[in-house]
Specification:
Elements (H helix, E strand, L loop, with lengths): L4 E3 L6 E3 L8 H19 L5 E5 L3 E6 L3 E5 L13 E5 L2 E7 L4 E4 L2 E4 L15 E6 L2 H14 L4
Antiparallel strand pairs: 1-2, 3-4, 4-7, 5-6, 7-10, 8-9
Helix pairs in contact: 1-2
Length: 152
């Protein structure tokens, strides 16, 4: 296996071995959701409960709960029967994987999530959903699970 990064023994730092872009997108949507929740709670303390959803990353905050559907991988998320329906209260859920976003390469669907170890698309898991206390944690764990297949 070729790794995209290596540790320099001389300098004690990480060195890139690829031109593959390095982004923080694995936590960006979750961080945005959490920031919106905190901003709304701070600006409008009279709001007792709220749901913030930005497509695949959702957080339920305050009083009450919300039924959230988990889409079945490799099916139309809007029209197909969901894989599960969860009741969330003061929790977040994030879903990552090929079922919602993929690229077509040589007529084959490949994930938009790149394995940082190989710089290749993650193909082990079609979709991963994670429930956590906050959206940032759910987001990074869902992206990681979609890539590594861990946490099944």
């Amino acid at each position: 296996m070729t790794f995209c990064f290596r540790t320099s023994r001389c300098w004690g730092r990480l060195i890139r071995r690829t031109e593959q872009p390095l982004t923080l997108n694995a936590i960006a949507k979750g961080t945005i959701v959490d920031s919106v929740v905190l901003a709304l709670q701070s600006e409008f303390p009279q709001i007792e409960g709220l749901v913030v959803n930005i497509g695949g990353d959702l957080r339920v905050a305050g009083v009450g709960q919300c039924a959230v559907t988990v889409p079945a991988p490799q099916r139309d998320a809007l029209n197909a029967t969901p894989l599960a329906v969860l009741q969330l209260a003061n929790q977040a859920i994030a879903t990552s994987g090929m079922s919602e976003r993929s690229w077509s390469v040589a007529g084959r669907a490949v994930s938009h999530i790149m394995d940082p170890r190989t710089a290749l698309p993650c193909v082990q898991v079609p979709s991963a959903s994670v429930v956590a206390a906050d959206a940032e944690t759910a987001d990074v764990l869902a992206s990681s699970a979609a890539c590594t297949g861990r946490g099944r």
